[in-house]
Amino acid sequence: MSEAAAKSKTVPTAKRLGSSVELKALVLSAVYESDGIAPLSGYQLLAARHRTTDVGIVVIDGDFNRDAFKLALGEIKAAGLKTSRMYAYGRTGSYSGQGISFSKFEEIGVDPDAFASSEQEFF
Fold first, then answer.
1. What is the CA 11 to chain-centroid distance, rounded?
2. How far apart are CA 78 and CA 39, in angstroms?
3. pTM of the full predicted structure?
4. Gyration radius (Cα) of the chain, Å
5. Whole-number Å distance between alpha carbons of 60 and 112
6. Which among 60, 90, 92, 93 counts the fewest CB atoms within 10 Å?
7. What is the pLDDT of residues 20-37, one digit of tens each?
């Protein structure tokens, strides 16, 4: 595989399986009251935990697919949260299952293109 082909395959994956701090904050403020959640840092997708249910809230700037689900589940486990349920927000959601509550950005009034994608910082 050429070097250019390898780069073109890895860069979109990194962006698809990440989310900027600003986007996470925008989604959280659009959906939740600040006293109902505990924001978390240091994760690619996991943005916060719901205080009363101890359920993870994940934000992905891309498609919530099987790879994103597996990454989110790993981060939720690492944070010591309940793994039987999660709230996920993204551009699209091609993976679903019992315990996944997914909403598109457009459904919650969030415009992820408000941030420059070339300079996003992924955690």
1. 17
2. 15
3. 0.80
4. 14
5. 10
6. 92
7. 999 999 999 999 999 999
